[in-house]
Each structure stands twice: as C-alpha cells, then as structure tokens.
Automatic annotation (TrEMBL):
Protein name: TECT1 protein
Pfam families xref list: DUF1619_N (PF25752), TCTN_DUF1619 (PF07773)
UniProtKB keywords: Cilium biogenesis/degradation, Glycoprotein, Signal
Domain Tectonic-1-3, first and last residues per copy: 159-319, 328-515
Biological process terms in GO annotation: cilium assembly; protein localization to ciliary transition zone
Coiled coil: none
Every Tectonic-1-3 N-terminal domain range: 12-122
Assigned GO CC terms: MKS complex
Xref: InterPro entries: TCTN1-3, TCTN1-3_dom, TCTN1-3_N
Length: 543
C-alpha cells in the first residue's frame, strides 16, 4: 500500500541525530555491546574491566578541533588505587589558532540530505532530469529575467566574490566541461577568479553542424557579461584572435579577427567549427568586471568524424597589473622555472621587486651551430630541480680586441640583464621583500700568468649557478624553498695570438640544485604509529 511505502521511505531516509556531546563520543568503541580493550570511553566497560586496563588508547576526546573554544573529555587511569580506577574529566579547551570557528551555526552540515526516492508518481520526472548522459542542478536564480520589476535592493552595490558564477544577461558565462563521461556539458558556469582549463568531446554531424550551438562562435560571445551581479551594466565579449587549424594540424592566425565565422557545411566538410575557446577577464580590485575577450581556434571536420574534441580555458587579470606566472603554491614544483627579478633603482628601502622580461632565471642555450657569437640572444629558463649544462665555442683571432671580446662573452653567459634576486617560493609576490633571495656573485680564475709583464687579458669562459634549497613546512607536505643562490664566473687568461693564428675556446654554463634539508637524527622516528582501528565514519562529515 502507498501508506506503507511512504512510511518505509521516511524511515529509510531518517538519520540519527548527530552526537555533539564529547562525553558521549568514543572513537575506539568498535565492538557492539562489548568492552573494547584500553578504550576508557567505552560505555560498555564496567569498573572491573577498567581495572584491567594498562593505558587509555584515546586519552582526549574533542568534537570539532576547528572550534575556538569547546569541551574536551579527558580519560586517564589511577594505577595507584586498589584496584586501578578510570578517571574522567570534562574541561574547557581553547584553540590557539587565530583561524578558528567561533560557533557552529550551519546545522545542515551535521545531517545527511535524504534523496528523493523513485515512486510511480515521480518516476517520469526523475527520468527526464537524470536519465541523460549529462545532467546539471542549475539553480533557478541563474536565469535573469530582464523584464521583471527591480527588487527593493536592486540599487545596492554588489561585487563578484571568489568562485561566484559570472552572470550574463541571460544566465551565466558557460565553460563547457565533461560531467559524467567525456561528453561536453554546457551547464558548467565559469567561477570568478577561478582559472580553469577543460577538455571534452562533442558529437558532430556535417549535415547538422550549422545548427549545433556548441560548434558556433556566436554561442560563446552572444551574451554580454554583467559587470557586477544584479546590475544593468553590461560588458561585451570581444573577439581577441581567431586561429584556423587545418585538417593536418597546421594553424594560421587570421589578420581580420572582427568577422564572425559561423559553421558552414561544404560538401563532405564542415568548416569554422569551434575547437577551442580561451576567455580572458579583466577585473578591478572591487570585484567588478571591466573587460572580457575570447580567443578562438576554428577547424574543420570530415563526414566520417562522429565527434570532435574541444578545449576551453579562462584566466583573470586585475586592472593595471601584469599577470605573473607562478612556479608553485607556495613551494617550487620540480620542472617549473625559477622566478627572478631586480630591485628598483633609487629606492631607500626594498619596496618592491621588478621581474625581468620573462620573470625567470635563464642560462645560455646551446645551438646546433655551437657558435657563441650567434647564441647571444638564445636563453633557456632554469627549471627547478633540473641540473643543466650548456655551452658553445668561440673562435678567437689575432685581430680581436680584449675588452670587447670579454664583454661579448659576459653577455653570452649572463644575458643582457642578469637578475639580482631569486624568489624563495614559487608564488612569491613582488611586494614581499623577505621572499626574495639575493644572488651572490663569485669570481675565480682558471689560469695565472707565469710572467706578470706579459701582455694578456682575462675573458670569462664559464658561469656556474648553484641553487641551494630546503624542505619547508610539515613532514606531511613539505614545500621547496630556495635559501641561497651563488653565481660563480670563471675566467681564463688569453695571451696575444700571433698574426694569422686562431684559437677555439669552449664556453660553458651550468646549474646545480643542492638539497640542504637537515637529515633526521639517528634513531629519530619521524612517523609514530598508533595501533587503532578507526570506524568507517570517523572523519564524517569530511572526506
């Protein structure tokens, strides 16, 4: 009967009330209606069983360790008593962290939401909502009705918050992404200040390609973006660039990027379909969007193709700032460039750092010709954790002057602008003065003159960079931090060559990374072990 089915569903969906009293919490109580050994909070244990305990496996029980102030149940054993007794105390515990929760006012987080059970009445509705390959729970509030009367707070000042969906005049800025499978779902909203990059597959048909919205440029730029939520100020999405990709993968940048190119079925080909979209959003420090641009990659598919892979990306830049690529957050990631920069001239204090052209530490890049004079502008970024060596050869003749030659080799080794500082972390900001490590310069001479009166000159032939780094932070998730950088310039003595003679000198540049983390002391046990079997819901409601 329907009443019996409804009662059964209600009973199945009901969940026990959450236990927040620490005196009733016991994570070591694993056996039902039995006393667990050395579990001093087990309510099934009698005083006689407590007297047999040797220690309390869980001496302190707290509710939520993120709370600023909470009750804590402390358990101990009085071994001097005869027989030994369990001691229970309920104390107030204060969290020393400044990032603590004052009160748990979101009660819904303590309960499991009951899913809607299928019934003969709602089965068709559930099938329509969840029966397809991809579905979404799009809130009704994302659909903006422009004809509806303005609410009383329509004139209030709003701003985008981190992660909030970017609203448009019709709904929100869409960033297609795979949901259940690899097929594209257009219901994924782009979040404010959330850099994303997705790839998904979209079904395609040459006969119907012109009618598939996700393959058209118009689908991604037709809706204007709201400058701030719940406002009438619009920001149009402009076309930044259009790149056309041929069937063999070659790409060509179109000079005329203000022409809208729509999908076109031409024989057995479908032209101008969207293969990739890259959004770039410019915003102010108050959380308002002032500019939006989209870069497109268009391509073609043949009649045999049943699907096409699309890529989507979105990035954000604040007004009057330049985007700085990071090499880790916070510690360096192996394989990413070492960030470097300069101190501004004329500053009495280190107010900020100006990064070089690429914001990276670079060394000489080897070329196929191995000619030093032709490799002055070829630079390779120094990648964190990678020991590198490169070089070239210099052909010296008797007509070459010493000082210009030495300056040329110095430019080859150091580049046009060798940085003064290196970022200690992968996400060090320019204004954080203490996060930048100065580069120490050393000089060494490979050869010395046997006759001081003999005419000669010193030319640089090698530059060795040593980067010392250490593991910073906890043992669970250590972060790589650069603590010292030394650049050693090696020179050699160049004697005056006789007329008509030549000499070839090898020039090398190298980078070595040295881990100076303090090793564990002998006999130190870094990972203590606890022989406790935790219940399956020990970390609820966290995963």
């Amino acid at each position: 009967p329907a009443d019996t089915l409804g009662a059964a569903q209600k009973q199945a969906c009901s969940a026990p009330a959450p236990v927040t009293d620490v005196a009733s919490l016991c994570v070591c109580d694993l056996l039902v209606a039995q006393c667990d050994a050395n579990c001093c909070c087990d309510p099934d244990c009698s005083p006689e069983e407590f007297s047999l305990f040797t220690t309390c496996s869980i001496p302190v029980v707290v509710g939520d360790s993120h709370l600023c102030r909470q009750k804590a149940a402390v358990y101990s054993l009085d071994v001097e008593a005869n027989p030994p007794e369990r001691i229970f105390q309920l104390i107030d515990q204060v969290n020393p962290s400044i990032f603590c929760i004052h009160a748990t006012n979101y009660k819904q987080a303590l309960y499991l939401r009951c899913p809607e059970m299928p019934t003969p009445e709602n089965f068709d509705d559930l099938l329509n909502e969840f029966g397809s390959a991809a579905f979404s729970a799009e809130p009704e509030g994302w659909n903006v009705d422009t004809e509806a009367p303005n609410p009383p707070d329509a004139n209030e000042t709003h701003s985008y918050q981190y992660g909030a969906p970017i609203q448009t005049e019709h709904a929100f800025l869409r960033l297609p992404s795979p949901v259940v499978s690899s097929w594209c779902s257009d219901a994924n909203p782009a979040g404010f200040l959330v850099n994303q990059a997705t790839k998904c597959i979209r079904s395609v048909s040459v006969e119907k390609c012109a009618s598939i919205q996700g393959l058209s440029m118009l689908f991604y730029i037709s809706s204007s973006i709201l400058a701030v939520p719940k406002s009438s100020q619009m920001v149009s999405v402009t076309v930044q660039s259009i790149v056309v990709q041929s069937l063999d993968g070659r790409r060509t940048l179109l000079e005329d990027d203000d022409v809208l190119r729509l999908p076109l079925a031409l024989g057995e080909l479908c032209l101008n379909i969207v293969l990739g979209v890259s959004y770039h959003i410019t915003y102010t420090d108050t959380g308002a969007i002032v500019e939006a641009a989209a870069a497109f990659v268009l391509g073609a598919v043949t009649k045999e193709a049943l699907s096409v892979q699309q890529s989507f990306q979105i990035s954000f830049t604040q007004v009057n700032t330049k985007p700085v690529p990071l090499s880790g957050n916070p510690g360096y990631v192996v394989g990413l460039p070492v960030r470097a920069g300069f101190r501004p001239q004329g500053y009495p204090f280190l107010a900020e750092f100006l990064t070089n052209k690429h914001g990276q530490l670079t060394i000489l890049q080897s070329t196929p010709s191995q000619d030093c004079l032709a490799a002055q502008a070829a630079r390779a970024p120094v990648l964190f954790g990678y020991n590198m060596i490169s070089g070239c050869k210099l052909r010296i003749t008797a007509a070459m002057k010493c000082q210009p030659l030495a300056q040329t080799l110095l430019d080859v080794l150091k580049g046009q602008s060798f940085p003064e500082y290196v970022a200690s972390f992968g996400n060090s900001q320019a204004l954080d003065v203490l996060d930048w490590v100065p580069i120490t310069h050393l000089h060494s001479s490979e050869q010395r003159l046997s006759n001081p009166l003999q005419s000669s000159c010193q030319i640089p032939v090698a530059l060795g960079i040593e980067v010392k780094w250490t593991k910073y932070g906890s043992l669970v998730n250590p972060q790589a931090r650069i603590v010292n950088v030394t650049a050693t310039l090696s020179t050699t003595t160049l004697k005056q060559l006789p007329s008509g003679r030549e000499r070839i000198i090898p020039v090398t540049s190298s980078v070595v990374f040295t881990d100076i983390s303090s090793p564990a002391e002998p006999g130190y046990k870094a990972w203590p072990t606890i022989n406790i079997k935790l219940p399956f819901d020990f970390f609820y409601p966290f995963v």
